[in-house]
Design a protein that fits this description.
The complex is a heterodimer. Helix content of chain A is 25%, strand content 33%. Chain A is built from 4 helices and 12 strands, in the order αααββββββαββββββ. By secondary structure, chain B is mainly alpha-helical. The chains are: A alpha+beta, B mainly alpha.
């Protein structure tokens, strides 16, 4: 073997030894085993011609909830059963808007009237992990912080707009030949660096532009 | 072929976690990625040509999902890799320095370095997993190696 080949082998061994210290969190294997058993039971019931139940294993439900973290969606307004309800003012599409924020178990529903006076609802939520790795519900402050982040809107007329607090910025003609637009927003001490792909996702950070190759 | 979820997890769970961690540098995020990857595996009615194909598929899904997570502003609220590192047990003292150096590499170099040195993939295989050009992988690997060499000096052999 040449020196470089030998060195490559040594480096690989070092790297593999180092990263073999990484493991999934404790309990993950048990969750997977349990889920697997339940899935097999469900498949077996289907095979026997029994009526299929809308069964979601526990770990699937948990992960679906994670996948919903702050993905806005239309939700059904839930009656207040002990959660937090606030009348708030929030920046929506550049306008300071009166809205009702309802938080139940880390999920939120925002109800407001749009510019045409129509009642609109949006919602989202999910769970977060604490420093100890345990799941916890999103706090009201975290939800509020999310709602205060910049928003990109692709309008039906083909124009693309960025909204942040009272600022509106049309960026329709600002995309480069790869369909990427970089926007730096500043409001007081708050900074946002946005990497926007035309109809294909947004990534933002308060520290710097995120490489468009690193997200879809 | 398709392995049961628990078998696939037993064989590749830690590898998927390591790949995800190399992208997002966060234990909780990497755990999320592992769960989501195996959910997708379970839900997708797909046969795999071989275990090699299956492993490459799992890694690709995990890396893409991890990239989605780091592009989210939510990511910044999570625990940093330095804290997680304190909980790791390394076999040799220099391993912690290698880990630290890899974590300091830019995102795009880190994942290529990981697939090359940990998974043992060739440049062509990495390009197929990441769906990018071989030239891109080659240059990212080369830059990543140089940065590692600069940081680790004699603890990283010149292999280019």
């Amino acid at each position: 073997m040449t020196n470089k080949t030998t060195n490559k082998t040594i480096n690989k061994e070092r790297y593999q030894r180092t990263f073999s210290a990484l493991h999934t969190s404790c309990g993950m294997e048990e969750i997977m085993m349990e889920a697997s058993e339940r899935m097999e039971t469900s498949e077996s019931m289907k095979a026997k011609g029994k009526k299929e139940k809308a069964y979601i294993p526990k770990w699937v439900a948990a992960c679906v909830a994670l996948g919903l973290v702050f993905v806005s969606s239309t939700v059904v307004y839930a009656a207040d059963i002990g959660g937090i309800q606030r009348n708030i003012q929030i920046w929506l599409h550049g306008d300071l808007t009166d809205a009702v924020l309802d938080i139940q178990n880390g999920q939120y529903t925002l109800t407001y009237e749009d510019e045409d006076g129509n009642r609109q609802e949006r919602g989202g939520g999910g769970i977060a992990f604490g420093p100890d790795g345990k799941e916890r519900e999103l706090t009201e402050a975290e939800i509020m912080e999310h709602l205060d982040e910049p928003e990109v809107r692709h309008k039906e007329d083909g124009t693309v707009w960025v909204y942040y607090h009272s600022q509106k910025l049309e960026i329709t003609d600002k995309f480069d030949e790869d369909g990427i637009c970089y926007v730096h927003l500043k409001d007081g001490k708050d900074n946002w660096y946005m990497t926007i792909k035309y109809h294909d996702g947004v990534a933002m950070s308060p520290h710097g532009y995120i490489d468009p190759e690193t997200f879809d | 072929m398709k392995l049961s979820v628990d078998t696939a997890f037993s064989k590749y769970g830690d590898r998927v976690f390591a790949a995800a961690f190399s992208v997002c540098r966060n234990q909780a995020d990497a755990d999320d990625v592992v769960q989501e990857t195996f959910i997708k595996y379970y839900k997708l009615d797909q046969e795999y040509e071989s275990e090699i194909h299956l492993k490459a598929w799992l890694l690709r899904v995990a890396i893409n999902r991890a990239r989605d997570i780091i592009s989210s502003s939510w990511h910044r609220k999570q625990v940093e890799w330095q804290e997680y590192m304190n909980d790791l047990t390394f076999e040799e003292p220099e391993d912690s320095r290698l880990f630290e150096s890899v974590m300091q590499l830019p995102d795009k170099y880190r994942v290529v370095i990981h697939l090359f040195y940990y998974e043992g993939y060739t440049i062509g295989e990495i390009a197929r997993i990441l769906k990018c050009r071989e030239g891109t992988v080659k240059s990212q690997l080369s830059r990543g190696r140089k940065l590692l060499k600069n940081m680790l000096m004699e603890e990283w052999d010149d292999d280019e």
